[in-house]
């Protein structure tokens, strides 16, 4: 028999069913034993009448059984309007214990006072908390909505290697690993391979996959391994076309989330899913500096001129809400010195790219890419990049259409959507400078 989930139980009312799940709660009353069972989609009550002689073996079974054990139950699913959980209950005829749980190290339903490190050590238990399961399901739904939008617009999903032979992009912040008799590196992003796809003639590609950054950063937004939603598209005339597409992509993902989980997000996380209007506001970096100074007395530190820092990003979102009533804002006009060598520049040397800020945090860096061989070679030399990018430069020798793209950090997107305190709670399993387990 296929597994029946709680969400589908109403299709089986007044039928004999087989249900498997965790033992969530055991309530031992004078005349009856209530056992709440759960799976990833919800909870259902099983009722065992103590006066029924044939139930004695069930009562004995639950005397020493701890919650979070798993059981397989055969019985009849009946209507009972007095039951709060869906007005139905299972009357068992057979119960099989499929695994026995030991005493839990903490109560995952009451995490107050439990340190985040302890929770991460026991992430497999921490995930049993209803909100934590919801985080995974909500993120999955958001990614599905974004994927569907791209499929509907003729994008091809690709899968690029994460083991690479050279320290790509900047040549720093990469993890070196032993690869037989030589060194290899974990990819910081699929950027080079997305552009290879453009040179190959694929036109529109995307990938949702892990990326690795050897940054010794201990903040609420950084991780050494994270999930990146990358895309690239050919035959563009301007990086603004890339920005336009990202607007539609985010709206598609957020719309799907709101349709499916909008009410429960507001109930469980205390935040509303807002579907942004188009177009998202856009402002030049130098104009933004002036606005932040005039409105909030903020002056960008000398070392950050040509870019944004965390404090500036927060103020930028405040400005976007005050000036435009919008949660999102595009920033353009970054200094070429602050961006990767493969970003295209205009005749004045200004970068043809952008950052997208949402709720005080950068979620995207995007750009039109340099596709002309002579120009990209010059940019690489200017950045002091040599043999590490030789294989990449080959892509542009034999014709490559104008193209552009961006990457979105999925973990960070979920962090902001649900207003969680840290990516440590957003990721299924967090990886940071001091954490490699479980």
Oligomer: single chain
Q: Overall pLDDT, averaged? A: 94
What structural class do helix, strand and pairing data support? alpha+beta
Count of beta strands: 16
CATH homologous superfamily designation of the largest domain? Bira Bifunctional Protein, Domain 2
Number of helices: 12
What CATH architecture of the largest domain would you give?
2-Layer Sandwich
Query: How do the strands of the widest beta sheet line up side by side?
Result: 6-10-11-16-15-14-13-12
What does this structure look like?
Helix 4 runs antiparallel to helix 6 and helix 7 crosses helix 8. This protein is an alpha+beta fold and 438 residues long. It contains 12 helices and 16 strands. The chain folds into 2 domains: 94 residues, Nucleic acid-binding proteins (OB fold (Dihydrolipoamide Acetyltransferase, E2P), Beta Barrel); 302 residues, Bira Bifunctional Protein, Domain 2 (BirA Bifunctional Protein, domain 2).
Concise synopsis of the structure shown:
With 438 residues, the chain is α+β, with helices and mostly antiparallel strands.
Helix-strand blueprint:
Elements: E1 15-28, E2 32-39, E3 42-49, H1 56-63, E4 70-79, E5 88-99, H2 116-121, H3 123-126, H4 130-152, E6 156-157, E7 163-164, E8 176-179, E9 182-186, H5 191-200, E10 204-212, E11 225-234, H6 239-269, E12 282-284, H7 285-296, H8 310-324, E13 328-332, E14 353-358, E15 361-368, H9 373-382, H10 390-393, E16 403-409, H11 410-418, H12 423-426
Parallel strand pairs: 3-5, 6-10, 12-13
Antiparallel strand pairs: 1-2, 1-4, 2-3, 4-5, 7-9, 8-9, 10-11, 11-16, 13-14, 14-15, 15-16
Helix pairs in contact: 4-6, 4-11, 7-8
